[in-house]
């Protein structure tokens, strides 16, 4: 059935894949040992930026590959900093600046085929972001805080160079390898961190814990019975990636076993992360995958996914607790806190945040209080007054900072993406699985955004930008996508 798409080499079995996996861990080892050494870190970043700029002038697509590699393998983006400015931000600013200069002097540059409606939506959203940026400065939120809130949105700019660069076949293959390397490496890293804390080899406030918390921007929480939550910002991507993989497996044909392995690794990460909203979003996404899929195949894959989840969760809980717990009690507690938030501190704290957030929205309903806004509340455990920029309510945070008008503009972009994907699905009656998976991923992220700002986190924006690029392309790109999907793990035996 798929022999016509195969070549002598699969995309995955390539030295580049294993180089990317090795790079993932090398980056973290260097980051750990350079943590606190501001001069050495800054010098390292400076050298990388010089090399990056040179690569851009030599071959723009090489620089693009480096940027994409950092976005996927660089965690939250703060593993290396140049006097407080992250390597990710430096790479992004360098690439965009050089691209703007090149575009300004390149009379041949055209946005041929790029949807005008999308340009209008992005332009309107940009105006509200500029207004919110100004409001933040005027309201005294602090330049650093305002800029930090603006940076994630600025990654939408990558849509324009990416629209043209992504048409290259080698760039498409590199993205697939980078995604697989990201998945495998993240699973190993999360499991390693879980094991060292569960066994007592590492402990809270240890050097590794502090690096994980302050540099990798993660969280490590002891839930009891040897089970530790391992949370990293980039984990949000594994909900849509899991759904995309599950959707591909729902196609009625024989699939390579490595697709199931990739899905299992993604589920493993979601288990170790153990976020209620992520798991609920994943379940909602599974339901969405029924769209255009055969019921029998959808049910079979969905049941297999749930079985993998339970098997991995119970096994991890059993071994982590030394055989004293199967984890189902912990799972029940996390589920119960959804409708009874007072039984868990984090859920209860989130409910307390609603009042100060609503006060900000009432004071500035239309245009918001500006980026960098903060809320003040009393901690329910230690009864301390805390001021924070973390609202823990995604849509309400947008309404508070960029106003209801800005929120409407942002949601217009999200609904534009959904409508575009539905159109792609209807135009692809024979191979809709890829776009259905993306659709389920976007809807799942919309649900996740209720209690977590995933849609306007840097990683979330990059995900949305990638989907926008794919949806903005003409329908002929589907043939390239199908070819790449079949060649990911398979190769011809001829």
From TrEMBL:
It holds the Pfam family Wzy_C. Its main location: membrane. Keywords: Membrane, Transmembrane, Transmembrane helix. The chain crosses the membrane at residues 12-32, 38-57, 86-106, 118-138, 150-166, 178-201, 258-286, 298-320, 402-422, 434-456, 462-486. It is found in: Membrane. Signal peptide: none annotated. The keyword rRNA-binding does not apply. One of its GO terms (cellular component) is membrane. Residues 262-411 form the O-antigen ligase-related domain. InterPro entries: O-antigen_ligase-rel_domated (IPR007016), WaaL-like (IPR051533). The keyword Metal-binding does not apply. It is a multi-pass membrane protein. This is O-antigen ligase-related domain-containing protein. It comes from Candidatus Magasanikbacteria bacterium RIFOXYB1_FULL_40_15.
């Amino acid at each position: 059935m798929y022999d016509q798409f195969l070549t002598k080499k699969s995309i995955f079995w390539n030295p580049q894949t294993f180089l990317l996996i090795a790079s993932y861990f090398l980056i973290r080892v260097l980051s750990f040992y350079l943590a606190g050494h501001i001069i050495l870190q800054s010098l390292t970043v400076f050298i990388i930026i010089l090399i990056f700029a040179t690569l851009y002038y030599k071959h723009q697509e090489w620089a693009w590959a480096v940027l994409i590699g950092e976005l996927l393998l660089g965690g939250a983006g703060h593993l290396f900093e140049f006097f407080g400015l992250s390597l990710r931000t430096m790479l992004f600013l360098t690439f965009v600046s050089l691209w703007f200069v090149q575009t300004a002097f390149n009379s041949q540059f055209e946005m041929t085929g790029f949807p005008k409606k999308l340009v209008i939506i992005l332009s309107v959203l940009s105006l509200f972001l500029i207004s919110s940026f100004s409001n933040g400065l005027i309201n005294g939120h602090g330049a650093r805080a305002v800029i930090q809130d603006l940076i994630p949105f600025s990654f939408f700019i990558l849509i324009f160079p990416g629209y043209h660069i992504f048409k290259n076949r080698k760039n498409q293959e590199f993205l697939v390898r980078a995604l697989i390397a990201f998945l495998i490496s993240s699973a190993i890293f999360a499991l390693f961190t879980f094991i060292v804390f569960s066994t007592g080899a590492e402990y809270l406030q240890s050097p590794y814990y502090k690096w994980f918390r302050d540099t990798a921007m993660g969280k490590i929480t002891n839930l009891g019975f040897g089970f530790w939550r391992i949370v990293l910002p980039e984990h949000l991507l594994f909900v849509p990636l899991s759904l995309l993989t599950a959707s591909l497996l729902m196609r009625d044909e024989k699939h390579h076993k490595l697709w199931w392995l990739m899905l299992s690794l993604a589920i493993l990460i979601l288990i170790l992360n153990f976020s209620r909203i992520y798991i609920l979003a994943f379940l909602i996404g599974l339901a969405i995958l029924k769209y255009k899929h055969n019921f029998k195949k959808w049910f079979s894959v969905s049941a297999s996914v749930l079985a993998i989840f339970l098997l991995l969760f119970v096994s991890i809980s059993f071994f982590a607790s030394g055989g004293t717990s199967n984890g189902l009690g912990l799972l029940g507690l996390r589920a119960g806190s959804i409708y009874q938030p007072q039984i868990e501190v984090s859920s209860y704290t989130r409910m307390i945040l609603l009042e100060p957030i609503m006060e900000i929205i009432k004071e500035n309903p239309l245009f918001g209080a500006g980026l960098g806004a903060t809320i003040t509340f009393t901690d329910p455990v230690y009864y301390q007054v805390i001021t924070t920029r973390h609202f823990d309510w995604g849509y309400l945070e947008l309404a508070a900072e960029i106003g209801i008008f800005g929120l409407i503009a942002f949601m217009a972009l999200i609904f534009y993406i959904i409508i575009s994907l539905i159109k792609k699905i209807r135009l692809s009656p024979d191979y809709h699985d890829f776009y259905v998976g993306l659709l389920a991923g976007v809807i799942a992220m919309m649900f996740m955004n209720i209690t977590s700002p995933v849609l306007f986190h840097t990683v979330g924006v990059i995900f949305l930008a990638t989907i926008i690029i794919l949806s903005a392309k003409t329908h002929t790109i589907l043939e390239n996508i199908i070819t790449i999907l079949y060649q990911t793990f398979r190769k011809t035996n001829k």
